[in-house]
Amino acid sequence: VQLQASGGGLVQAGGSLRLSCAASGRILSIDDMGWYRQGPGKQRELVATITRGGSTNYVDSVKGRFTISRDNAKNTVTLQMNSLKPEDTAVYYCNVLGVRDYRSLYYGNAFWGQGTQVTVSS
Predict the structure, then answer these.
(1) Which of 5, 36, 41, 80 could staple 113 via S-S, CB 3.0–4.6 A?
(2) Which of 1, 2, 3, 48 is nearest to 21 (CA)?
(3) What is the pLDDT of residue 75?
């Protein structure tokens, strides 16, 4: 499984960015998809996750501003980030958990994308 993230960049406070991540490989299904971030001098933290059925979970600091969505047919996950704040500055990583491939093998471990930089200026 390979994850390719895109969409990071530099934006002013109050602006918006859209992150996308595509999972490739002989994937039949993915249980959970999500985004994590790691700011300067901080530990990596969960931003948002979404289950195959569409149930979502957000860290409190982004509720009401970020929206996570996924396309199960395309194995993609998107994070729409609105009303961005300087404290949202971080490297954002996409993550998938629970992958079943076309041989019906199940991988319970997490897979990570390469990270994309989001910088919000004040």
Answers:
(1) 5
(2) 3
(3) 97
